[in-house]
Specification:
Shape: globular
Strand order of the largest sheet: 3-2-1-4-5-7-6
CATH topology: Rossmann fold
Helix content: 40-55%
Number of helices: 11
Distance between the termini: 39 Å
Number of strands: 7
CATH superfamily: Vaccinia Virus protein VP39
Number of domains: 1
Largest sheet: 7 strands, mixed
Strand content: 15-25%
């Protein structure tokens, strides 16, 4: 049923590779500071910014939309003891998540726009580099608001210039307009420059581990990493005209 969805088969192949490749794990640690099987821009410093929003002293519940193989949630759980929830359209990813993090967790195969949870279920909802899969971003934000507890927080990494066209400012972005339509006030940080730096770091890490990738017969993934980071070979001024990225924090009741 998912065969025609954006990048579906590519992600099934990606998570099969990530589950078995020491070269890719080493690349992630060098590029991002931690192996979360990243295919985007979620380095350790970004994920650590979620931690202050997770309540202490009570069982917290965290939902990650597009959770992949759950490694980011596993890190947050290790740091806080939270109950972790996640869904993703990749069956391979969810199978791995259930295997890696079987305790105090709920991982499901599901689609953005179709998955649903009871109202006021979560202290924190996260979404890193996944919102462009939403067929209706305003509708998704409405769901997230309903899923959050009264003092809950939505934390997102949001990229423009690849799947979603780049706008001239945060205020013009699809996510900003979706939050505004749902009466959610966002605090945002423009991390476009840090993203350019991270892409350069990703490229260097891929080059560093090239021989490991080749020894594993994973040359196609090495080449893909090099292709994905070609945009960072240009200077920042050129890069920033094509791409933008934001970290966004919004409370259900500001």
């Amino acid at each position: 049923m998912y065969d025609d969805l954006l990048f579906y088969h590519a992600y099934e192949d990606f998570y099969r590779m990530a589950a078995t490749s020491p070269a890719f794990a080493a690349y992630c640690r060098d590029a991002f500071g931690e192996d979360f099987s990243q295919d985007g821009f979620s380095d350790l410093a970004q994920i650590q910014q979620v931690l202050p929003h997770i309540p202490q002293g009570k069982p917290a519940h965290i939902l990650d939309i597009g959770c992949g193989n759950g490694k980011m949630l596993g890190y947050l759980q290790k740091q806080t003891g939270a109950f972790i929830h996640g869904f993703d359209y990749s069956r391979q990813a969810i199978q791995t998540a259930k295997h890696l993090f079987p305790e105090h967790s709920d991982f499901q195969v599901g689609l953005i726009g179709e998955m649903d949870y009871p109202a006021a279920s979560f202290d924190v909802v996260t979404s890193m580099d996944i919102l462009y899969f939403a067929p209706d971003m305003t509708g998704l934000v409405a769901q997230i608001k309903r899923w959050l507890k009264p003092d809950g927080v939505f934390f997102a990494g949001y990229q423009e210039g690849d799947v979603i066209p780049k706008t001239n400012s945060w205020e013009e972005s699809q996510l900003a307009k979706a939050l505004q339509a749902n009466a959610m006030v966002a605090e945002y940080t423009d991390i476009t420059y840090q993203t350019w730096q991270l892409l350069r770091k990703k490229r260097q890490a891929a080059e560093t581990h090239r021989e490991l990738f080749l020894a594993e017969k994973q040359e196609e993934w090495y080449q893909l990493l090099m292709t994905q980071t070609e945009c960072a070979a240009s200077d920042y001024e050129f890069f920033s005209k094509k791409y933008s990225r934001y970290l966004v924090v919004t409370r259900k009741n500001p």
